[in-house]
Design a protein that fits this description.
The chain is of the alpha/beta class. The chain has helices at about 60-70, 105-115, 125-135, 155-160, 165-170, 180-195, 245-255, 260-270, 270-275, 280-290, 295-320, 330-335, 335-340, 355-360, 385-395; strands at about 1-10, 10-20, 25-30, 40-45, 50-55, 85-90, 105, 145, 200-205, 210-215, 220-225, 325, 365, 375-380.
Amino acid sequence: MKILVINAGSSSLKYQLIDMQTEEAILKGLCERITMSGGELTQKTSDGRKLNIKKDMKNHTEAIELVLKAMVDEKYGAIKSIDEISAVGHRVLHSGEDFSSSVLIDDEVIRICEKNAELGPLHMPGNIACIKSCREVMPGVPMVAVFDTTFHSTMPAKAYMYGIPYSVYDKYKVRKYGFHGTSHKFVSEETIKLLGKKQSRIIVCHLGNGSSISAVKDGKCLDTSMGFTPLEGLVMGTRSGDIDPAAVEFIAKKLGLSTAEAVQYLNKKCGMLGISELSSDMRDLEAAIKAGDKKAELAVEVAAYRIKKYIGSYAAVLNGVDAIVFTGGIGEHSAYMRRLVMSDMEYLGVKFDLEKNAAPADGVCELSAADSKVKVLILPTNEELSIARETKALAL
């Protein structure tokens, strides 16, 4: 049983073919520059065979056709026939308030996704275009939409409402939605297995160029840091995170920016990149810190401080915590960031082992002392596998 997992953007298409008997990816690939000149497909099988095709793709249909051709390539593919694909799981950014879980795709689901496209204008058009193309090229193959937001749909109204007139929320659906849902779901479920108990209080720290934190009780999300868009919350690679809206207006006036330009500025020019005025990449910042760069040091300290504050607030929301889990590129690989975040956490019952934290981590790793009341873990995320599991449950 093999499931194709697709993560489409406006001009890109990532894909994995997962064998559900082993839950291992037997093939991974990427199409770039869809709708533009200089299109390219790169693909690698689990046994190391690599394929590179330079070909313009004028739309997502041509991209999907190229993907299917590459997967059955006699020399570089992983399957003999497209008939071996049992189902397709599509990562879709936004569910709005219309879906609280993944769904089998039909015409009505596509219509609702098109209605919600204004909630995610950068990603939703590509998601929808790819779904339509797949249905055209692979008629009869069941397909599932796995939304980035639905894991957070269990948040109570007191967590997702903003302090705005209710009529504005009711008419325009302006509220906190949260993102990175497939990652938070996967990591929290795996953590529950490790804890060995269904009643659990888990804080998941998904830290990468885009970062978010969630408070998960008994497998259900009670709160998360990202909001109406992924801009709210933590200080990220290039995103500002939480900021006074009046400060945004002030900055926009001083820099001569329109509203749209100001939002773009907060998304692309701020965060650790903005503070350091050097880089959004944690590896670059750590190297600069070692070389004595004070702005790089401040950028990381500000980001770590924001993470620490969210952990404290979510411990209050959960009435305690059983596990704090780090995942994502920074969460899994930056001992420096983890040390800054976990310092002075004794009040929570955390005993953080600095030696374990400094040691190279590979896979699941416990960073807390044996007698710590709270487990601190590294747990690599696997969003594609999470999508494949959801797809299998609904489609097969």
